[in-house]
Specification:
The complex is a heterodimer of chains A (113) and B (112). By secondary structure, chain A is an all-beta fold. Chain A contains no helices and 11 strands. Chain A is globular and about 40 Å long. Classes of the chains: A mainly beta (113), B mainly beta (112).
Chain lengths: 113, 112
């Protein structure tokens, strides 16, 4: 089954404790992206990657890091999480040439205390 | 800066009625306008999309109307059903861009 998977689905952590949210897709997509969803703000892009070893900032990159060492994986790293990073996070992937149709993962709900 | 403005924030419609969600954009370089549907606990999924060379696109009960001069587009859900209850996001993409810009979302509830 073609899908985007994220782990963990739920995470409660404390301020300053480094964490990684994994994202993996099995559709051989070149494009991958991370979003955060907050009430009243919609989906805002954090980082995206057009291909392996190519990443770029989205609209709200502060406090986040990403890496793209393999085509299928695109982990999101929070080096020192803060309460304002409490949010619902989505990973998405798409075929090369632009994100015309993005396939989203099921989401990771992160709470930073 | 909100490049894609979506309204209303929430919408309640009776079963069988028409649901209408509106979006407006500012960047004339946008050339692809999709709508995504998100059910509770799930990620968004592409519902329907339009390019500015047409004024309307219909897929089943879902229709996008596009007004290029007004820089507006809307989603119409005909014969709305309780199963349509979800959050809907409009989005836009530039022809030379690498990312989608999303609206703030509309939570639709269809009453039986």
């Amino acid at each position: 089954e073609a899908q985007v998977t994220q782990n963990p689905r739920y995470l409660i952590t404390v301020t300053g404790k480094k964490l990684t949210v994994t994202c993996s897709q099995n559709m051989n997509h070149e494009y991958m992206s991370w979003y955060r969803q907050d009430p009243g703000l919609g989906l805002r892009q954090i980082y995206y990657s057009m291909n392996v070893e190519v990443t770029d900032k989205g609209d709200v990159p502060e406090g986040y890091k990403v890496s793209r060492k393999e085509k299928r994986n695109f982990p999101l790293i929070l080096e020192s999480p803060s309460p304002n990073q409490t949010s619902l996070y989505f990973c998405a992937s798409a075929v090369a040439g632009g994100p015309d149709t993005q396939y989203f993962g099921p989401g990771t709900r992160l709470t930073v205390l | 800066q909100q490049q894609v403005k979506q309204s209303p924030q929430s919408l309640i419609v009776q079963k069988g009625g028409i649901s209408i969600i509106n979006c407006a954009y500012e960047n004339t370089a946008f050339d692809y306008f999709p709508w995504y549907q998100q059910f509770p606990g799930k990620g968004p999924a592409l519902l329907i999309a339009i390019r500015p060379d047409v004024s309307e696109k219909k897929e089943g009960r879902f229709t996008i109307s596009f007004n290029k001069s007004a820089k507006q587009f809307s989603l119409h859900i005909m014969d709305s059903q309780p199963g349509d209850s979800a959050t809907y996001f409009c989005a836009a993409r530039r022809s030379s861009g690498d990312k989608l810009t999303f609206g703030t979302g509309t939570r639709l509830a269809v009453r039986p």
